[in-house]
Amino acid sequence: MFRVLVSDNLSPIGLKLLEEHPEIELDYQPEIHQDVEALKAALQNADGVVIRSGTKLTEDVLTGQERLKVIARAGVGVDNIDLQAATRQGIIVSNTPDGNTLSTAEQTIAMMMGLCRNTGPASQSMREGRWDRKLYTGTQLAGKTIGVVGLGRIGLAVAKRCNGLEMNVLGYDPFLSEERADQQNIELYRDIDELLVKCDIVTVHTPLTDETRGIINAERLAKMKKGVRLINCARGGIIDEQALIEGLESGHVGGAALDVYVTEKPGANDKLASFPNVLCTPHLGASTDEAQEQVAVEAADIVCNFLTKNEVRSAVNMVPISGKELEGTRAYLDLAYRLGLLLAQTSHGEGIQGARLQYRGDVCSKPMNLITSAFTSGLLSAALNDSVSIVNSDMTAKDRGIEITQTSTTETGAFATMISATLITDKREITAAGTTFGNNFLRLVKLNEYQLDAYLDGLLLIYRHRDVPGLIGAIGTTFGKHKVNISHMALGREKNEPGGDAIAVLNLDNEPTEAAIKEVIDHPDVHGVELVNLPPANASLPWLGL
């Protein structure tokens, strides 16, 4: 028998599936998450756990959980789970990505309608015996321009419904393809600032990451139309709450509808809730009978099928490969992942349409689909969130209309093995190729048309230049003056001939200041400079315990 703990409230239909499974013993303690020590003790006796947002599985809670094998989150967000700690413990983490998409999209539309028609305060005035028709004159949605920030599953579902309301739908997403946007009747923007200034209403649907935290801030609010309305049914913190308060107080912001907050369960005197033109609800995005049943059934199935059938579904930190095979493939996974990170950072936010990978030599004997997933994970992880893994990266790319293709040949060229990746953006193609030396050394051997031999780890400064005498010395002198240490340098020349265009890759031990970068950029023979951050040499892959 396998013991499964359910540490939050769960729909009865999900509990019934667990109770009636012949190989599962259910331990239902929906309030136990409020006592951390009790939760840790209960997990010691559990093979699996089903949670919702109330349970916080921190590193402290997960460390030492030797029996626990699988965590199923009945919902999409896994920000209440320490994924690295779970991976180190060998615990699979799965979510239920489809269960609450429609309910959250409908909540967004409901909030938008309620905000624009003053439904909340008008209803309250009726309860108080008043008949204030003139006071609550609203705004119709047809013909208004809405900006949807983040076009994943929920963002696209919201956009579809806004089109049905005859609104002009603009969308911001760094990865959704132009073709997919056109199909959904969305005017796509790659620059969020260009989108925001055109909107009457803005709704956010991104994960909460370092890049998206406070993405709607005071500076951006000030540039929006006077009277703009804001909606957040995604994650608290995407909209800077203090900036929003100031915008409401000044009258520049016409109103807001919030279902999520930086601090959940805000107090009765919470500042935001006190504004008459702010509609607040207590995180109801997934609070429909249908959504709760669907995520409960999906979470119960995930746990049961993993424990009894070794089936892995919707995992965000699990590689579908045996341990022995995984160890033999690690260097290729790492190489592909770093090439994805490199190309993502050198594309400078251009719209990504797809990528072509070519495998040559020894790598062709390895699981190439898995290696392609590792590349895609690196490509997408910078702009999305930490839960983009080797397991879900392909689906994430597909959802955004990004086509990743691969070809292979067992014939070797200059190297026994090589992975070449070409990124296709709205404006150009960028190619990077790498190889492995031994089991631990990764090299960048091609960048666009230039052949070179650069270390593929740490902080890289890439600069394009004319291959003239004295330039390398000038760059070295500049960094020396600014206390930046160069650990390695690689040079690639056009047709491998002196005097023409060239590219250099410097591995730096510390990050250069803006002044140092400017001095390099201002050199008359330098044509372009960019910094790329890669993991240190031999760093663990983010979705592996290796």
From TrEMBL:
Presence of the UniProt keyword Cell membrane in the record: no
Molecular function terms, GO-annotated: NAD binding; phosphoglycerate dehydrogenase activity
Organism for this UniProt entry: Thalassoglobus polymorphus
Gene3D superfamilies, alphabetized: 3.30.70.260, D-3-phosphoglycerate dehydrogenase, domain 3, NAD(P)-binding Rossmann-like Domain
InterPro entries, sorted: ACT-like_dom_sf (IPR045865), ACT_dom (IPR002912), ASB_dom_sf (IPR029009), D-2-hydroxyacid_DH (IPR050857), D-isomer_2_OHA_DH_cat_dom (IPR006139), D-isomer_DH_CS (IPR029753), D-isomer_DH_CS1 (IPR029752), D-isomer_DH_NAD-bd (IPR006140)
Domain ACT: 460-534
Annotated coiled-coil segments of the chain: none
Record-listed E.C. numbers: 1.1.1.95
Protein name (record): D-3-phosphoglycerate dehydrogenase
Keyword Oxidoreductase: yes
Catalytic activity: (R)-2-hydroxyglutarate + NAD(+) = 2-oxoglutarate + NADH + H(+); (2R)-3-phosphoglycerate + NAD(+) = 3-phosphooxypyruvate + NADH + H(+)
Function: Catalyzes the reversible oxidation of 3-phospho-D-glycerate to 3-phosphonooxypyruvate, the first step of the phosphorylated L-serine biosynthesis pathway. Also catalyzes the reversible oxidation of 2-hydroxyglutarate to 2-oxoglutarate.
Family stated for the protein in its record: Belongs to the D-isomer specific 2-hydroxyacid dehydrogenase family.
GO biological process, one term: L-serine biosynthetic process
Keywords noted in UniProt: Amino-acid biosynthesis, NAD, Oxidoreductase, Serine biosynthesis
Pathway(s): Amino-acid biosynthesis; L-serine biosynthesis; L-serine from 3-phospho-D-glycerate: step 1/3
